[in-house]
Amino acid sequence: MLRFVFFVAMWAGTVWQALAWQSKVLIRGYVEEADSRERLVGAHVFEVRSSRGTVTDNFGYFSLQVPVEADSVLQLRVSYTGYQSVWKELPEGRDTFLLIRMQAGEQLSEVVVKAAEGGQATTIDRQVMSVGQIARMPAMFGEADVFKALSLLPGVQPGQEGQSAIFVRGGSRDQNLVLLDGVPLYFTNHFAGFFSVFNPDALKQVQLYKGGFPAHYGGRLSSVLDLTMKEGHMSEWHAKGAMGLLSSRLMAEGPIVKDRASMLVAARRSWTDLIVLPLIYELGGYEKWERASFWFGDLNFKVNWMINDRNRLFASGYLGRDQYNFNLREAVGNGDFLTTGSKTRWDNSTFSLRWQSLLS
What we know:
By secondary structure, the chain is mostly beta strands. The chain folds into 2 domains: 79 residues, Sandwich (Immunoglobulin-like), CATH 2.60.40.1120; 232 residues, TonB-dependent receptor, plug domain (Ferric Hydroxamate Uptake Protein, Chain A, domain 1). The model has no long low-confidence stretch (mean pLDDT 81).
């Protein structure tokens, strides 16, 4: 008799676990901006009845498992800073895939909030900066720079004065893992270290891990700098440019096929060899054979093809070049001269192809 009771209890527990497993549904999908169709990172997805929620990952994807109760309707709320919240009522009892597009919220006048110091929670391992924050940081020669903006964060040192490099928590510069759209970059500076290779107009988000970074990052000891490029506007073309004391830049983005494929191109070039140095040499009376010339340039591009709601193809790349020329003429006697010249050039290039698919 005791064995029979034990058997019934085991069987009931197994059936109960099976029913409990079947009483859950999986809600998953993507959250994107309605106009540009760019995926939104860090959007909040919350199911009201079960009080369960999650946030979208770096690709705008979310997955949420919620329990199912009889005669109830699932209510999903999606929110993101600066956008209007989206509410969805979902059918009960089956897994659901969603593509949620969010409209920008109303632009309000500026509000300044002042609070007393202290009592604020700080996150020591991960810092996220937007392109707008980088543009508002103090800049050298009027050029917004990613590394110089990051060097103002706690635990990050800039190194030598004027140099575009970061040293995180006592580590050296080669102990930082620098990724552009998932591809490692090993030479990250222009002008012998005065400017970084990253054009801020082409960037979407900058993440710096100063410690305790996720396991899928590896190969470095000090920190991880993960930069993501914009995907290009899906609906209409936009262009943006800027001129600084030492360089100028231009960015254009727009649809290749409206609401289906988009592209982004951003170029930057210094004009030290075209305007600045020639003017200095002419005013200083330098001879033709006593002049140096140096310049840098880079190009960012990205193509985004939405195959369908569950599949996307991304192709992105970076091309950069620094070049230094130097000429010198010396008198060697008897009216003869020795002319020497040198040319140094170094290039930097990356390319990535990513297929993002959601398997059913």
